[in-house]
Amino acid sequence: MMVKNTVRSASDLDPTVPGKLLRLFFHDCFVEGCDASVLLQGNGTERSDPANKSLGGFSVIDSAKRVLEIFCPETVSCADILALAARDAVEFVRPNDAHIFFLTFIFAGGPNIQIPTGRKDGRNSTAVNVRPNIIDTSFTLDEMAKIFSAKGLSMDDLVILSGAHTIGRSHCSSFNDRFKLDSNGNLTLIDSSLDRQYAAQLTKMCPVGASDDSVTVNNDPGTPLQFDNQYYKVLLEHKGLFQSDSALLNDARTRNRVLEFANNQDSFFERWGVSFLKLSSIGVKTGDEGEIRQSFIPIE
Ligand code: HEM
Ligand SMILES: [Ca+2]
Ligand SMILES: [Ca+2]
Questions:
Q1: Whose CA is nearest to atom 22 of ligand 1?
Q2: Which residue of 166, 226, 241, 247 shows the fewest CB atoms closer than 10 Å?
């Protein structure tokens, strides 16, 4: 409840919070398991790796931790807080449309998932562990499936959890490998799996050669603030932002799932609950394998 309230008020103030929390959790669980290793600061920690450079949401976890330490000291691990925050972030972005259209959508609850707690916080956080465990947007489906399978996740889980890209934002540098600079200094599309019109819009939003990395675009151009099945519809229109998104549509092993979820949001929500639970269980540390850390952000 205390985590939920913190996530809710932070998301109220800043709509980019839910996406940040969800991605932060993904990057935590895939490296050393869901043990809050991604939160540790310092030289050579996971956070210092370039692949984690654009992670955010740390201050929300920090606030929740502070509140919990006042009301129930030394009880709730940072790893659990992060898991609950990611879970709540998803639940939270749904009610928005229920609120606006509440007469029609009043019964349309988002994926409301029960997840067990009891995760201990890990003591190891090393930058060199990040790259072998985090998927790059340039990966083939086989490369992605290999990493997922090492975490006990299937190709279905890959399609389902990629549905997280129904919210959140991305830096231009995360998809500029789909373009090249032509001799006139303009970006041209080189990845034919991307819709041309959408590609043109993206190049307008992303200034060429901008050293400034502050520009971000919505992952889901349709309903960027709602956790819904729009991501899969976007994939069908060849508007998946990353090559790794497009790959899901372009392979017979995953295409049927994309079609299924594009056509049936309930099916996506139901499956999301199961896959999210699997994600939140990766490499969980218990007993002496970890600790309940007091503070994870020494100085920010
Ligand atoms: C499977 C391959 C995946 C790849 C290659 C990938 C890659 C990326 C990249 C490059 C970004 C943009 C980061 C930036 O430029 O700031 C991003 C954003 C995001 N990803 Fe993924 N991702 C994958 C899977 C997932 C999964 C499994 C989840 C969660 C369950 C997830 C959740 C998110 C969210 C919520 C954002 C938005 C972050 C924000 O708004 O700050 N992604 N992803
Ligand atoms: Ca971790
Ligand atoms: Ca959406």
A1: 162
A2: 226
Residues carrying an active site annotation:
27
Nearest to 133 by CA among 33, 273, 259, 44: 33
HSE at residue 99, side-chain half, CA atoms within 13 A, is 6
Full-model pTM: 0.94
Q: What CATH number should be reported for the domain whose range is 169-272?
A: 1.10.420.10
Q: How wide is the angle at C-alpha 45 spanned by C-alphas 42 and 47, nearest 5°? A: 95
Cα-to-centroid distance, 52 and ligand 2 (Å):
12
Cα–Cα dist 221/239, whole Å: 8
Which residue CA neighbors atom 6 of ligand 1 most closely?
137
pLDDT tens digits, 194-235:
999 999 999 999 877 655 578 999 999 999 989 999 999 999
**Residue ranges of domains in the chain:** 2-135+280-289, 169-272
Mutate to test the pocket of ligand 1, among 26, 53, 146, 248 (most ligand atoms within 8 A of CB): 26
Residue type, position 166, single letter: T
